[in-house]
């Protein structure tokens, strides 16, 4: 492992110094100048915290960076919030180009700072977003700039769209529909292990709220425990997961109990409880699965109704949007391996035109994304630049 004897006061300066060392000490697969620019761009993106809902700083920095490079920049407020901006950038005069390249600039919490470490064989870059999806953003921009400089790509052929909110139900990409873009091809960036994704599972997210009646825990019959209502409902949901549709391509439909909370104290019968739940759909539609969810929860909680109060609400289900069914994705490009992924993307959130091609590719593994050890190798990042070049040229051929 490479270690500096003394760290400069600024972590960003230290990271930049180490990035320069990496260029000198290893043989990059890209030209040294381009590799250095790739590392610098990736570093700035990661070092600027952009947890969903707090994307302003990274959007401001990226807009300024691309504008300095001579790109035309449009920003779009998401849900009327001036601090949450989508970025549309184009190097020519045409905003509505035939090729659109896109990814997201928000990340999941918590924030982990940028780190770069080298040994004799590899350089590893870590930090929140180092894989998902700032690796894709950096590689896409460098690949596009490289092709423009080599005159293999015309300025009016391409535009970049970077959105907020992908990690929280895709409100940024849904807002981007108002931009009225009509590209013939879109290249989306997410971690796919350097392969083309042939598709990904569908998604249905919802919050389950259970309602009880507070009472002293010594006299529980005077109240109704919202926690007990919730536990019964969640038990029924986990049983339901065994019955939900599966497919040969996407495997099993799975239910994740992501966040559970309820009550105020151990000696109080809980008045309220809730759970946030995500269903990854392998087959069927969100409407079909949502209907089954409502049926099994209703049946499981009927026992809590008391005579004379049959119409009293035991629970409510708040769906996070309409959800979407499994998404098949184009992968007709020679020279790439293929992969099917279980996570969701912004692809179904952007309205699709007839005949439009959509590709999903990105460096790094989803298996480390969202974790405390999210990291990517420099060689994978460099390979992604070359692969995005191939995808861009294929899209315009």
From TrEMBL:
Record PANTHER family: ACETYLORNITHINE DEACETYLASE, PEPTIDASE M20 DIMERISATION DOMAIN-CONTAINING PROTEIN
Gene3D superfamilies: 3.30.70.360, Zn peptidases (3.40.630.10)
Cofactor: Zn(2+)
Residue ranges of every copy of the Peptidase M20 dimerisation domain listed in the record: 198-301
Organism of derivation: Aureobasidium subglaciale (strain EXF-2481)
SUPFAM superfamilies: Bacterial exopeptidase dimerisation domain, Zn-dependent exopeptidases
Molecular function per GO: hydrolase activity; metal ion binding
InterPro entries, per the entry: ArgE/DapE_CS, Bact_exopeptidase_dim_dom, Peptidase_M20, Peptidase_M20_dimer, Peptidase_M20A
Recorded family membership: Belongs to the peptidase M20A family.
UniProt name for this protein: Peptidase M20 dimerisation domain-containing protein
Keywords: Hydrolase, Metal-binding, Zinc
Superkingdom per UniProt: Eukaryota
């Amino acid at each position: 492992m490479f270690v500096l004897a003394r760290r400069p006061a600024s972590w960003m300066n230290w990271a930049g110094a180490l990035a320069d060392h990496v260029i000198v000490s290893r043989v990059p697969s890209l030209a040294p100048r381009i590799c250095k620019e790739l590392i610098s761009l990736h570093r700035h993106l990661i070092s600027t915290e952009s947890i969903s809902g707090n994307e302003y700083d990274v959007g401001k920095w990226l807009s300024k960076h691309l504008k300095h490079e001579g790109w035309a920049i449009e920003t779009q407020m998401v849900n009327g919030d001036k601090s949450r901006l989508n970025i549309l950038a184009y190097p020519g005069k045409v905003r509505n180009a035939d090729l659109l390249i896109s990814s997201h600039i928000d990340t999941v919490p918590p924030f982990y700072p940028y780190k770069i470490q080298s040994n004799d064989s590899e350089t590893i870059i870590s930090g929140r977003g180092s894989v998902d999806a700032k690796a894709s953003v950096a590689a896409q921009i460098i690949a596009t700039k490289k092709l423009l400089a080599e005159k293999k790509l015309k300025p009016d052929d391409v535009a970049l769209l970077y959105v907020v909110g992908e990690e929280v139900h895709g409100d940024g990409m849904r807002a981007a529909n108002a931009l009225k873009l009509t590209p013939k091809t879109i290249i989306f960036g997410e971690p796919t292990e350097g392969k083309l994704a042939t598709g990904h599972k569908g998604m249905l997210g919802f919050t389950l709220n259970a309602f009880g009646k507070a009472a002293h825990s010594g006299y529980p019959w005077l109240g109704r425990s919202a926690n007990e209502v919730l536990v019964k409902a969640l038990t029924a949901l986990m049983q339901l997961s065994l019955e939900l549709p599966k497919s040969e391509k996407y495997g099993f439909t799975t239910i994740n109990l992501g966040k559970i909370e309820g009550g105020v104290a151990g000696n109080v019968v809980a008045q309220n409880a809730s759970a946030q739940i995500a269903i990854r759909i392998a087959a069927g539609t969100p409407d079909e699965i949502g209907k089954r969810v409502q049926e099994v929860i209703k049946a499981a909680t009927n026992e809590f109704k008391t005579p004379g109060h049959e119409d009293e609400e035991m629970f409510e289900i708040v769906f996070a949007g309409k959800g979407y069914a499994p998404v098949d994705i184009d992968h007709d490009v020679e020279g790439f391996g293929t992969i099917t992924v279980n996570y969701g993307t912004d692809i179904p959130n952007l309205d699709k035109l007839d005949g439009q091609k959509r590709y999903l590719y990105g460096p790094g593994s989803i298996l480390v994304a969202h974790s405390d050890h999210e990291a990517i190798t420099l060689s994978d990042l460099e390979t992604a630049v070359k692969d995005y070049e191939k995808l861009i040229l294929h899209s315009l051929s």
